[in-house]
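Worked example 3 (structure in, sequence out).
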């Protein structure tokens, strides 16, 4: 995420983010790849450390804070969701998928380590995500077993066939096709939105919430997740590779349906703004005392430049 100072209802977002990001980076460095064989561990750490916006873990921590939840459980959940995101990028960049050579401003994992190590690194990161939220006995005894099970369920659903993996399958099948707005929205609700929404719900699961609050937070996460993809499509057109840290213009080159190709640039921008308003409206009805961090993160998604 950008480090620019954002004031939302008295919240200095950059100041709020600083200790959160420090805890996330320290935990990831402590947990990722340390017990793996040397080359595999190096590939895992290369995929995760020293790059990325960390939006998903920040959403976990912000939602946990909003519900007054357990910070120890939330930090594990935050790192877990970032590992799922990182593994998906490693696999998406491979020649059998998007065949990309640049990610987070550096060569992709398969370019740096070879396809076999990249495949294994992604597999290992996915497994490690679940190890973190359901660790061996004694490693996180303070986190109730029921909470661990709930976090595993939310993460599995967000990442699997009814979430991110399912959306990616639809994306691959849609190359060269004309999709309707509803079809494009459904694809991205799964491919991108499910993990972002899951991040919010995992943070909320680290505390106690009522049904109405969970439903409102789910609506916030859904709107935010879709807004992120709309902005991603816009940036793929208007930004350069150096700014994005990945190959610009690759969606058009691959003849993939996007919000810009469907709505035009200005139409896509207007839709992103509409989704941001929907996210704020959901927060307004969630009944929580302080959702400033979640609100500021939604605005940051709309304003991001990479």
């Amino acid at each position: 995420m950008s480090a620019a100072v954002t004031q939302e209802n008295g919240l200095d977002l950059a100041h709020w983010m600083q200790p959160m990001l420090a805890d996330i980076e320290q935990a990831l460095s402590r947990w990722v790849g340390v017990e793996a064989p040397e080359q595999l561990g190096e590939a895992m750490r290369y995929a995760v450390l020293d790059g990325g916006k960390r939006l998903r873990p920040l959403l976990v921590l912000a939602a946990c804070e909003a519900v007054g939840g357990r910070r120890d459980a939330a930090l594990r959940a935050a790192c877990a969701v970032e590992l799922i995101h990182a593994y998906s990028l490693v696999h998406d960049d491979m020649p059998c998928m998007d065949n990309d050579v640049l990610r987070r401003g550096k060569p992709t994992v398969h370019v740096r380590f070879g396809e076999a190590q990249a495949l294994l690194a992604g597999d290992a990161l996915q497994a490690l995500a679940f190890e973190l939220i359901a660790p061996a006995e004694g490693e996180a005894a303070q986190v109730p077993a029921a909470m661990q099970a709930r976090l595993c369920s939310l993460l599995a659903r967000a990442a699997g066939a009814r979430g991110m993996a399912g959306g990616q399958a639809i994306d691959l099948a849609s190359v060269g096709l004309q999709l309707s707005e509803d079809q494009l929205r459904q694809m991205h609700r799964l491919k991108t939105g499910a993990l972002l929404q899951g991040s919010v719900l995992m943070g909320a699961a680290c505390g106690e919430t009522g049904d109405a609050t969970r439903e409102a937070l789910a609506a916030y996460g859904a709107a935010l997740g879709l807004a992120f993809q709309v902005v991603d499509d816009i940036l793929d057109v208007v930004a350069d590779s150096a700014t994005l840290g990945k190959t610009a213009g690759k969606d058009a080159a691959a003849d993939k349906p996007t919000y810009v190709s469907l709505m035009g640039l200005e139409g896509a921008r207007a839709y992103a703004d509409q989704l941001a308003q929907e996210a704020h409206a959901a927060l307004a009805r969630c009944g929580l005392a302080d959702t400033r961090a979640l609100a500021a993160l939604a605005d940051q998604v709309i304003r991001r430049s990479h």
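Notes: Residues 1-8 have pLDDT under 50 and may be disordered. The two ends are 9 Å apart (CA to CA).
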